[in-house]
Amino acid sequence: MASYQHIDTDNMHQSIYEFSDHLMQAVEIGKSISLKNQYNDTRNIIVAGMGGSAIGGDVAKLLCKNELKVPMVVSRNYTLPGWANENTLVICCSYSGNTEETLAAFEHARDKGAKIVGISTGGNLSEKMTELELDLVTIPSGFQPRAALAFSMVPILFLLQKMGLIGTETIDQLPDAASLIKSIRDRYGKQSDDNPTFTLAQQIYKTIPMIYGETDATGTLAVRFKGQLSENAKMLAYCNELPEMNHNEIVGFKNNQDILNHISVIWLKDKKDHPRTALRRESTQEIISDLCANHEVLSAEGDSATTRFLHLIHYGDWLSYWCAILHRTDPTPVKNIDRLKAILSEKS
Predict the structure, then answer these.
(1) DSSP state of 304
(2) Which domain holds residue 34?
(3) Which of the listed residues 143, 174, 205 is the one where a domain comes to its end?
(4) What number of other Cβ atoms are within 10 A of residue 164's Cβ?
(5) Is 36 domain-assigned?
(6) Are residues 80 and 193 in the same domain?
(7) Pick from 109, 140, 174: which residue ends a domain?
(8) Catalytic residue among 162, 182, 327, 341
(9) Is 231 designated active site?
């Protein structure tokens, strides 16, 4: 097989490899945040973003869920929920600063009198935030948004901490998580059968992966897996959550066997899964075990959920990367997204 360097001409390998470094760089950015506006009486939080920026909100919410003192949602839309008001904190997260949905959500937040904070590398969002003297966190440019997860996720945690909406527990766990990821990145980054992400990629790259996780836990990681497989490997992938899939989707594993033969099921588990959810996962796997091409159960060790979840994210990023290489596809370009943006621009 051709060496990955000849396929990965934009060096997505380096972006994934440096995830642990990004985490610690993002911690330093977070420490340097100095808020000039007041955020008293914040009663709910909305992260407005799309794609690689939105997933930062998802992961931040997942990691700090046990610390959060108010409800938090991630909005992937042009408009905000109807309940947003002057007591809502809206974190507008757009890596480029030019995401049209996020810019529209920003204007909607202004109309509602919400408290607004921005995270971006620049673009229109940064210009608007600066003009209105709103708090803005500027993050490093030069990455694909999906490869800048640490820079979208970690500043959210620091913003919430500095506003008194979470404590420091999650933030304090980030260095250990980064250290563990750094210790395994050489293994995951090798084009070798000694690398579990490469061997799993060899099993699934000619199939349609379906990733299942637990609601409000590994289900968030399943969304990340799906997105990375779609953007890096240019493969259709799908995700859903337990226990919900047990009330509908499980029945779909019957007809169209020729399609089922090309589906790989990836189960994401964690030692803190609800015991009934764990039983459901094991029982569901038993029921559909002979109906799909592959079944793989993935989990990660670690004392904290922060370490385990970020490790699994790193695993999934490498999995998507090696699927791309096996398809002889450059992981970086997203030509269909670029084409869609051009069409929308012409019709705006």
Answers:
(1) S
(2) 4-174
(3) 174
(4) 11
(5) yes
(6) no
(7) 174
(8) 341
(9) yes
Whether residue 157 sits in one domain with residue 89: yes
Domain count, the chain: 2
Of the candidates 36, 247, 335, 347, the residue annotated as catalytic is 247
CA 129 from chain centre, in angstroms, equals 25
For residues 299 and 225, give the distance between their C-alpha atoms in angstroms, rounded to a whole number: 13
Q: How far apart are CA 108 and CA 85, in angstroms?
A: 10
pTM of the model: 0.96
Reported as a single tens digit per residue, the pLDDT across 52-103 is 999 999 999 999 999 999 999 999 999 999 999 999 999 999 999 999 999 9
**296-303, long-range: CB < 8 A, 24+ apart:** 296/200, 296/203, 296/204, 296/264, 296/265, 296/266, 296/267, 297/267, 297/269, 298/266, 298/267, 298/268, 298/269, 299/268, 299/269, 299/270, 299/271, 300/270, 302/176, 302/177, 302/180, 303/176
Our answer to whether residue 247 is catalytic in this structure is yes
pLDDT in tens, 182-193: 999 999 999 999
Q: Given the structure tokens 């089922």, which residue do they identify?
A: 260
